[in-house]
Design brief:
Helix 1 crosses helix 4. By secondary structure, the protein is mostly helical. The protein has 5 helices and no strands.
């Protein structure tokens, strides 16, 4: 997918615009457009959002836009997104042990819920 996105941009001479800053900004905008769909929905409504074909299409398109910009961002910076995610999960497993297990000395608290 990264190669396909890079070829798409290259065919249109968009590479000068695909800087890390611009791609990060575009990613943020597309993520905000995804959030906008859910902005005023109740939790129950948000859980059923894919039941409405029109809304489901909008959600699917925004997810595709977010993923496309993230992959392009990773391509420009030479980041393997799956390796980065795997390493992050490994760190989070150490920082946030399963309830009842003890965290290694000096590492996170199981009371914290953010996967930072």
């Amino acid at each position: 997918m990264r190669d396909r996105l890079a070829a798409f941009a290259a065919a249109r001479d968009w590479q000068p615009f695909h800087t890390p800053k611009n791609l990060a900004s575009a990613l943020s905008v597309e993520a905000a457009e995804l959030v906008e769909i859910f902005q005023w929905l109740t939790p129950e409504q948000s859980a059923r959002v894919m039941a409405d074909p029109g809304t489901a299409d909008r959600v699917t398109d925004e997810v595709a836009d977010v993923l496309a910009y993230l992959l392009q961002f990773c391509g420009v910076l030479g980041i393997d997104p799956l390796a980065a995610l795997s390493a992050k999960i490994d760190r989070n497993e150490r920082r946030f042990p399963v309830p009842g297990e003890r965290a290694p000395e000096g590492q996170g608290s199981p009371d914290r819920h953010s996967p930072e």
